[in-house]
Structure formats: C-alpha cells, structure tokens
Design goal:
Blueprint (H helix, E strand, L loop, with lengths): L2 E6 L23 H11 L12 H4 L6 E6 L5 E2 L7 H11 L10 H9 L5 E3 L2 E3 L1
Antiparallel strand pairs: 1-2, 2-3, 4-5
Length: 128
C-alpha cells in the first residue's frame, strides 16, 4: 500500500481511512487540450504525462502538521496529525506498515518520509 507524507493544518480533522473528497472528483477527462488550457490559466504545472497537476486545487489544506496518507486508492489519511515529523515517525513505528504487513523503525520512517519514498525491502526486492 502506497504511503506519503502530507503537511496539513495541526487541527485538520478528516477521518482516517476516509477518502479525501477532493480526490473523488475527476477533473481531467477526455479533452486534454481543455485541461492544458485550464492549467495555463490557473498557472498549474504539467506532470510528466502532460496532464495538469491538480493537487494544489483538490488536495487537503496545507499547514504545519505532519500526517501519513495512503496513496493506493484515491487517497486518505492513515495517521493522526502530529506537530513534528519525529512524532509521526514514532506513531508509524507502532501503528503503520510500509507495504503489506512490513514494518519499519522510526529512523527508517524518517528517512523514507523525508525522501518521499516509503518502501519495504526483502532481500534484493523493493516494494513500494
């Protein structure tokens, strides 16, 4: 299951495991030219597949808090919001998995979240 660090307001209270409503909208439909024109007007960058980066418009509000989100489905919070990355990493060590049932220590969580690359390694194989 994909995991990602998001910075949200400290008082952000979206229920864990519930898809963030902004991710349920499908802004990019079949008419790519209209999407690219919308991106130009709104000043949104294009992603590698040439579609607009809608994250600034549909993502959760930004803030000073640290929260773990899953990215396998549309996207939802997995953890409570913490005032520090260390607090989140301590919570993750006891309560979160990196992939399937694989776990990591708080120092590993910190490295992965700082690198935006949560993964699990078994031998020579990495699971992301």
């Amino acid at each position: 299951m994909g995991r990602k660090l998001k910075r949200v307001p400290l008082d952000f209270s979206w229920p864990p495991g519930t898809t963030w409503y902004g991710y349920l909208s499908r802004l990019c439909a079949e008419s790519c030219e209209e999407c690219r024109e919308f991106a130009r007007i709104k000043g949104l960058p294009l992603l590698s597949h040439n579609c607009p980066d809608y994250e600034p418009l549909i993502g959760p509000p930004k803030g000073d808090g640290y929260q773990l989100w899953e990215t396998t489905s549309e996207g939802s919070p997995v953890s409570p919001v913490f005032a520090s990355l260390d607090g989140l990493c301590e919570w993750c060590e006891e309560n979160a998995t990196t992939f399937g049932s694989h776990r990591a220590g708080r120092d590993e969580w910190r490295l992965m979240l700082e690198a935006d690359s949560v993964h699990s390694r078994e031998g020579d194989v990495s699971f992301m």
